[in-house]
Every structure is written in C-alpha cells, then in structure tokens.
C-alpha cells in the first residue's frame, strides 16, 4: 500500500491578544506621543500668536498732533460748520482736525485706505 508523503507543517504566527477593552498606549508610544503633542501645542500657539499680531498691531495712530495732551478732542457747533467741512481721520494733516489731503500720500506709502470725514448740508 502506498501512503501520501508527509506534508510540511506551516508555521502559523500567533496573533497577539487584543486588548479586552479601551485604548491602550504602550510605554514606547507614550514616549513618542507626549513630545509630539507638546510640539504641536506650542507650534499652534506660536502660529496663532503670530497671525493675530499681523492682523492688528498695537501702535499709536497719532504720531505728532498735540502729543503733550492726554487726549486730542475737537468740538464744533453745527451752526459754525457752514455748508461743508472735511475732517482728517488719518492723523497726518498739517491742518488737523481738517483734512489737507495728506491721507493720499499715507495710503500710497503704506497701502492703507484711510480718508476724511465729510459733513455737508443736503442739497435741496
Ligand atoms: S489728511 Fe487725514 S484724512 Fe485727509
């Protein structure tokens, strides 16, 4: 009687036991995850701090008008304005509080878009 040749035994790797529940971190994963999380948090903070600084700089608007005064205030009576008054809002006018057109040069040099406040009586 003939018999079949013996089949070679295949080595079947053992499957690691799955954790029964929850998420587990090994010590090696933890040692990598913590520095990555810290770097990500610090990087995020620095990027947001940089971007917020770019959008709104804390600097003085008034660079030269009545700097010895704690607050620059002008008041006008409506009756004294006449038919039209043009007031500076860029703080660059040599005739402040009136506009002398200095905002045009300021806008060209800085890329800003400031302009005057114009108050006038309605055309009837
Ligand atoms: S000069 Fe300042 S708004 Fe015109």
Automatic annotation (TrEMBL):
What is the protein's major site of localization? endoplasmic reticulum
Q: Which residues form a coiled coil?
A: none
Mind telling me which GO cellular component terms the entry cites? endoplasmic reticulum membrane; mitochondrial outer membrane
Statement: the UniProt record of this protein carries the keyword Mitochondrion: yes
Q: TM segments? A: 30-51
Question: What keywords appear on the UniProt entry?
Answer: 2Fe-2S, Autophagy, Endoplasmic reticulum, Iron, Iron-sulfur, Membrane, Metal-binding, Mitochondrion, Mitochondrion outer membrane, Transmembrane, Transmembrane helix
Chain ranges of the Iron-binding zinc finger CDGSH type domain: 71-109
Identify a single GO molecular function assigned to this protein. Answer: metal ion binding
InterPro entries given for it? CISD1/2 (IPR045131), FeS-contain_CDGSH-typ (IPR018967), MitoNEET_CISD (IPR042216)
Q: Which GO terms describe its biological process?
A: autophagy; regulation of autophagy
Pfam families according to UniProt: zf-CDGSH
Subcellular compartments: Endoplasmic reticulum membrane; Mitochondrion outer membrane
* Requisite cofactors: [2Fe-2S] cluster
Topological relation to the membrane, as annotated: Single-pass membrane protein
Q: Which family does it belong to?
A: Belongs to the CISD protein family. CISD2 subfamily.
Instruction: Give a short account of what the protein does.
Output: Regulator of autophagy that contributes to antagonize becn1-mediated cellular autophagy at the endoplasmic reticulum. Participates in the interaction of bcl2 with becn1 and is required for bcl2-mediated depression of endoplasmic reticulum Ca(2+) stores during autophagy.
Q: Describe its assembly.
A: Homodimer.
Q: What is this protein called?
A: Iron-binding zinc finger CDGSH type domain-containing protein
